[in-house]
Amino acid sequence: MMMQLPHKITNWTTFWQANPTGFNKVMQKSTSFFAKKIKSIFDLNQTDNILDFGCGPGYLIELINEEVNSIHGVDISNKYIELCNTKFCNQKNISVSQINAHHSLFPIKRKGLPINKIIVLSVLQYYPSLDAVKDLLNDLKRNTPSGTQCLIADIIPPNHHFFNDALSVFINSIKQNYFLSFLRFMFYVTFSNYKNLNQKILKIDKLFFVEYAKNIDVEILFIPAITLHPNRYSLIIKF
Questions:
Q1: What is the pTM of this model?
Q2: Can you tell me the distance from the alpha carbon of 73 to that of 30, in angstroms, rounded to the nearest whole number?
């Protein structure tokens, strides 16, 4: 029998607001893989104040918290934010807040948080259009100090095959001993109407970022293979 997502879930915004727990274990392991890669590539250090854009349940915050001065996480899911508030309630260098969907960002500017690095992990594919992505980038640039480095990771290119994603997670689940969680995840994906949402995944050509960086005169650096999915790509923009 097909598992149906709640009827109110009609797009990726409402999907993440519903806190889909079927993703959490795989998300945690994928984030752990990413965190190990970025500690050298992104040069995290004790002077850094990080914005984790799309922080989810706070897995990345947990993994890099001791490497940096402070972290502020934002997410559209009030349930994820409630979870983070509970999880990090006794850690003074961690704060979180909920944001509106896609391009009305920020309590960041109002709070005067001294952000100097931004991490956007596995987020852009859930945006509705390239214009919405451009709005986000402009908002990040506008609301953070000049020179802020923004690492955007796990971007899905055109002609991407999602079988490759499943294969890479499967291999990692064997290596890291979470194969049963992977099977539950695949059952969820296969026998729910999640696949209808999956057709709305946004794929972005590298040329989009090249032209964006050129138009606003900022530096850009493409970085391969820092996420669990080797066929996706990542980049750093220096605003």
A1: 0.87
A2: 18
